[in-house]
Amino acid sequence: MKKIFKTFVTITLIGLVLIPLFYYILYPNYNKLIGPIKRFDIQRSSEEIMFQILTTVVPTRDKVLGISDTVSNSNSIEESLSKDFVLERKVLEEMNTRILINSIEVDGLVYEGLESKTMDRGFWHFPTSNLPGQKGNVVIIGHRYAKLPPQKDTFFNLDKVKVGDKIQVVQSDIEYTYIVADTRVVEKNDISILQDFTDYRITLVTCTPLWSAKQRLVIVGKLDKLYQNT
Fold first, then answer.
1. Any idea which architecture 75-228 has in CATH?
2. Which of 17, 38, 167, 189 counts the most CB atoms within 10 A of its CB?
3. What is the per-residue pLDDT across 35-61, written as a single tens digit (0 to 9) for each?
């Protein structure tokens, strides 16, 4: 009888500890705790790991034939900036510019600089491209796996963006909304994506496939509306 009573008391005490713990700590933070687990795609991750193994262990047809996989322009997109280019002022940083993609929970500051290491701070506005809202091409480049979710200033999930999604560029008193019109993969030295255009567009660039810098994932959005923040 005493043993049963002790067991009952022990279970009761454990319950008195666990119930408040769940109610006051775990339950309010449920989304933060379970979010990364929900976003983890086992099938996708296993496919990416297998891709890395196969491309490392199994030689490609070009390697067997001794054909080089490099082209004449060996510089990557991020390294294509002319050494003579001068950045007179950091307009976007002065206006506290942010980029938001709600569909993949991206929210981060946009920085300006002459070197790709600018991406260590956040998203990098490629200096030869246009400014947000201007006619032409606004190019923003970001790391993919240097920062991982739930951090939001990363392009880790950029491959999940779909045509029709919104890309917002928010400044001190203006908000530009771009609608995704195209997604594609290009070679890492394909600088054609940096060229100017006659429309109003934004081009987002990051590495692909995941955990590799072999190619570049490119997302193109077209300017939809201009909102004045009040």
1. Beta Barrel (2.40)
2. 167
3. 544 444 544 455 454 444 444 444 433
